[in-house]
Automatic annotation (TrEMBL), chain A:
One of its GO terms (biological process) is post-translational protein targeting to membrane, translocation. One of its GO terms (cellular component) is Sec62/Sec63 complex. This is Translocation protein. It comes from the Eukaryota.
UniProtKB/TrEMBL annotation, chain B:
The lineage of its organism: Eukaryota, Fungi, Dikarya, Ascomycota, Saccharomycotina. One of its GO terms (cellular component) is Sec62/Sec63 complex. GO terms for molecular function: protein transmembrane transporter activity; RNA binding. Its main location: endoplasmic reticulum. It comes from Wickerhamomyces ciferrii (strain ATCC 14091 / BCRC 22168 / CBS 111 / JCM 3599 / NBRC 0793 / NRRL Y-1031 F-60-10). Coiled coil: none annotated. It holds the Pfam family DnaJ. This is Membrane protein.
Length: 198, 639
């Protein structure tokens, strides 16, 4: 008997529902979804903006821009030198990115790094490609057909700088290691080993 | 009765349903809890454990606070509440009467005959009953009683027909009732008071909260956790930091303990733990810890306590970037943090208890082994100990720090005599654990180094390693947590001195040799041999030849002499059976390895060291480009 009563009640309730109810329902759901998608995209773009670059400041690039846009224009030799510096830095970064690519991929597959870093790495690679294209275009401005000679030159500069850095670091490394091993240098330049038995 | 779902009106079913769900979940939990409680009580002492209690009272307090209470856990609370509700449910079920709604129709019972009575007997029995119960035969009955007796007679006739007549019998057999199919009813084991009446909005609200609130919350928090923490358990931001540091690291700069500590101090974990502290302040906490500054602050203990997991992460990254120097230094830093010893050449002595730091620094002695060749009085002088009792403590620790001695290291392919091309291999390292008090060589018989190739070991070559006893807790009185350290093996390629494998951690090794006397150690019959197996993930090269590797095995907790040895992967095609040549020649006298071995006056290691002449071949493989790659570091910015 009780069951019959409840069915009657529900029938009454159903009859009260107006035409607007489904419309309101659909509008509410749609607005919620639209608001969510707008916010989501906004956040994603913001995250892209705030993404930290992989490398530190690119000083040669900034220098080249500043010289190129300065008024009055400096000597063309100065501009070429700045471009060479910028190119060498770009080569260095490209090589570095290529070098770490297998490491980053392996780490990503292992789950040791998050999606964010992997995406950052890919963005950095793309940016570097763009930078190389830009430099090539810039080179063409100075002298058509310079590229085949220009790129090997950049490589040479890059490698030479690397060697130079190594060479000039030897003295610092020596001092650092002596400090670590607690070895002192006496006045006449002889190494004094603290733990050596006499 | 209609065919709609009906709820549990008399509260008969839902308690039983809830009870069975509870029992099914609770019993496994309870068994686990009980077995845990029993297993933890009988913890056996591990051989070689240093039991000396030198822990500062504040660190002790910190340690006991971090240890979760064994009795008052959420799990135990759940088990307790679960059993209480089981009790309540059983009580509830026992006091409610079971009202069967549909009485089962049993013709034998109605007629009062036994099951399986023959049709003939049933007929005669029914005849007797019909005489007795026929409504026409009943007199002097009220209206009500008449109705009842009629009903009863109808039932009797039905039962009789069910057993004798063809169609009724069929109905009875198919549907359990002579009248054919009965109304089916489906019950839901939810108490009726929840569905109807005042509490129904409450139930609806509960549903909404569960499906719309609680479920998404748990899923999203789980998801964000997998997003914010890597599989190695470090924060994603910290992982980014380490990758950046490695990417921008200049090989020309020497990595030292302070370098690693600076990197660690920038980890996001510390920013979460101490939102108000700068990187420098965290670095200062590390320094205070290394220099054993008192009073010890709670922040310092908290900060140092999480460093091992960060360093493990850093080692993982450094090894993935194939950087040998940083990997090595990260392990060193871990040792420094565990023993609370600043960077110095006298670490082996400074890690001992009761020593006077300033006196030790002035001494010439560096190694533990050297220290233990001295007489007691001299040791006291060297370490700045005045008390005999304290000296005993110190020596107890000094002699129980395990030192590894390499016996044999070789590449192995399971089930093969030689290292075959393109196969999975591992480096098998045989070591002897010795105490600093043991001097000289030990005699290890060949059969101790042999491993029997059974089907089991072929399937899992690492079984032998895992079957060794666990290492005891480390002696680290200044470390905020109790530690069970171990050994880490770093494998690198000789040709470019870069790491090739992810670091292998070992926490199993028998320390029984520490209890041997010097004579027993020299004799060697009681000396046990430990095994490490370092898995090599990439398959062996397809080309035959010799490939040089370098393996460094470091203790993660103690300052001792690390093992650092070359191993040669001699890839060759499997020999034909009659041509097997087991002899591995000793190093040539004119080769570098042979000369070094002779100068040391050592027996030449049983590592296959016979390939120096072939070094040049592999050096040539180095292309210029590869070499330059590593040289190009980020230095142009000068920062």
């Amino acid at each position: 008997m009780a069951d019959n009563q409840t069915t009657e009640q529900t029938e009454q309730v159903i009859s009260k529902i107006s035409v607007f109810t489904p419309i309101i329902y659909v509008t509410v759901v749609l607005t919620a979804l639209v608001v969510f998608s707008i916010n989501y995209r906004k956040n994603k773009i913001n995250a892209l903006y705030n993404r930290q670059p992989f490398f530190k400041r690119n000083l040669p690039k900034e220098l080249h821009f500043e010289l190129r846009d300065s008024d009055p224009k400096p000597n063309e030799k100065v501009l070429k030198a700045a471009l060479l510096r910028r190119g060498a830095e770009s080569i260095r970064r490209t090589i570095k990115l290529k070098e770490v690519q297998p490491f980053i991929t392996a780490l990503y597959q292992k789950g040791s790094i998050g999606d964010d870093l992997y995406e950052r790495y890919q963005t950095a690679t793309k940016l570097e490609e763009l930078e190389v294209q830009e430099i090539v275009a810039e080179t063409e401005k100075y002298k058509a057909g310079w590229i085949p000679k220009f790129v090997p030159l950049l490589q040479e500069i890059c490698f030479n700088e690397a060697l130079r850095r190594r060479y000039s670091a030897i003295e610092d490394r020596k001092l650092d290691l002596l400090d670590q091993w607690e070895i002192k240098i006496s006045k006449d330049g002889i190494l004094e080993f603290p733990n050596k038995e006499k | 009765m209609d065919s709609r779902y009906n709820y549990d009106e008399h509260s008969q079913t839902w308690p039983v349903f809830t009870l069975s769900v509870l029992v099914v979940t609770l019993i496994p939990f309870t068994i686990q809890a009980v077995s845990n409680a029993f297993s933890s009580t009988k913890e056996e002492p591990i051989v070689g454990e240093i039991k000396l209690d030198k822990v500062d009272s504040q660190i002790k307090k910190f340690r006991s606070n971090r240890k979760p209470s064994k009795i008052f856990t959420k799990k135990n609370l759940f088990i307790l509440l679960g059993w209480l509700s089981i009790g309540a449910l059983i009580y509830h079920i026992s006091i409610t009467e079971v009202k069967t709604q549909v009485s089962a129709f049993d013709p034998y019972d109605l007629l009062g005959v036994e099951y399986g009575t023959s049709e003939k007997d049933i007929k005669s029995h029914f005849r007797k009953l019909s005489i007795k119960f026929h409504p026409d035969k009943q007199r002097n009955l009220s209206e009500d009683e008449k109705l009842k007796s009629e009903e009863h007679f109808v039932l009797l006739t039905k039962a009789y027909k069910a057993l004798t007549e063809e169609t009724t019998r069929e109905n009875y057999e198919k549907y359990g009732h002579p009248d054919g199919p009965q109304q089916a009813s489906h019950g839901i084991a939810l108490p009726k008071f929840l569905i109807e009446g005042k509490s129904s909005p409450l139930l609806l609200a509960l549903y909404i909260v569960l499906i719309g609130g609680v479920l998404p919350y748990f899923v999203s928090s789980w998801w964000s956790k997998t997003k914010t923490y890597t599989k190695k358990g470090i924060h994603v931001e910290t992982a980014n930091l380490f990758v950046e540091k490695l990417l921008n690291h200049k090989p020309s700069i020497i990595v030292r303990v302070d370098t690693i500590l600076t990197w660690l101090s920038e980890a996001t974990e510390f920013k979460i733990l101490f939102p108000n502290k700068s990187n420098e302040e965290i670095f200062q906490l590390f320094q205070n810890h290394l220099n054993r500054k008192t009073p010890i602050s709670d922040d310092q203990l908290k900060a140092v306590a999480i460093t091992p997991s960060l360093i493990a992460g850093l080692i993982d990254f450094a090894a993935s970037f194939r950087n040998t120097e940083i990997s090595n230094m990260a392990v060193e830093t871990l040792k420094h943090l565990v023993q609370a010893v600043p960077e110095s050449t006298k670490n082996e002595l400074l890690q001992l208890p009761n020593v006077d730091q300033t006196i030790v620094q002035e001494q010439k002695i560096v190694r533990l082994g050297k220290l233990l060749t001295l007489g007691n009085e001299e040791i006291k002088k060297t370490l700045g100990i005045k008390d005999d009792l304290k000296l005993k403590e110190t020596l107890d620790v000094a002699t129980n720090i395990p030192i590894l001695k390499l016996i044999k290291a070789e590449f192995k392919v399971p089930g093969e005599v030689v290292v075959t091309p393109e196969s999975t291999c591992y480096i098998s390292v045989k070591v002897v654990v010795k105490s600093a008090k043991h001097h000289g060589e030990t005699q290890i018989s060949e059969d101790k180094l042999k491993e029997n190739d059974t089907l089991e070991t072929l399937r899992d070559p690492y079984q032998i390693v895992n079957a060794q006893p666990s290492l005891p807790k480390s002696f680290a009185p200044f470390f905020p947590t109790e530690r069970r350290g171990g050994f880490v093996a770093l494998t690198s390629l000789q040709k470019d001195t870069k790491i090739t494998e992810s670091p292998a951690f070992f926490q199993k090794l028998s320390l029984s040799n520490l209890e041997l006397t010097q004579e027993q150690y020299k004799d060697g019959s009681k000396v046990s041999v430990g095994t490490f197996k370092i898995p090599i993930t990439s398959p062996t090269p397809a080309q035959e030849g010799k490939y040089q590797f370098r393996v460094v095995i470091k203790s993660t907790d103690y300052f001792t002499q690390d093992l650092d040895f070359p191993v040669i992967m001699h890839v060759q095609n499997p020999p034909r059976l009659e041509e097997v040549n087991y002899d591995i020649p000793d190093p040539d006298e004119d080769s570098l390895a042979g000369a070094v071995a002779q100068m040391k006056g050592e027996k030449v290691k049983r590592v296959d060291d016979d390939s120096d002449d072939e070094d040049s071949e592999f050096e040539e493989e180095l292309s210029d480009f590869e070499d330059i790659n590593t040289d190009t570091e980020d230095e142009a910015e000068g920062n």
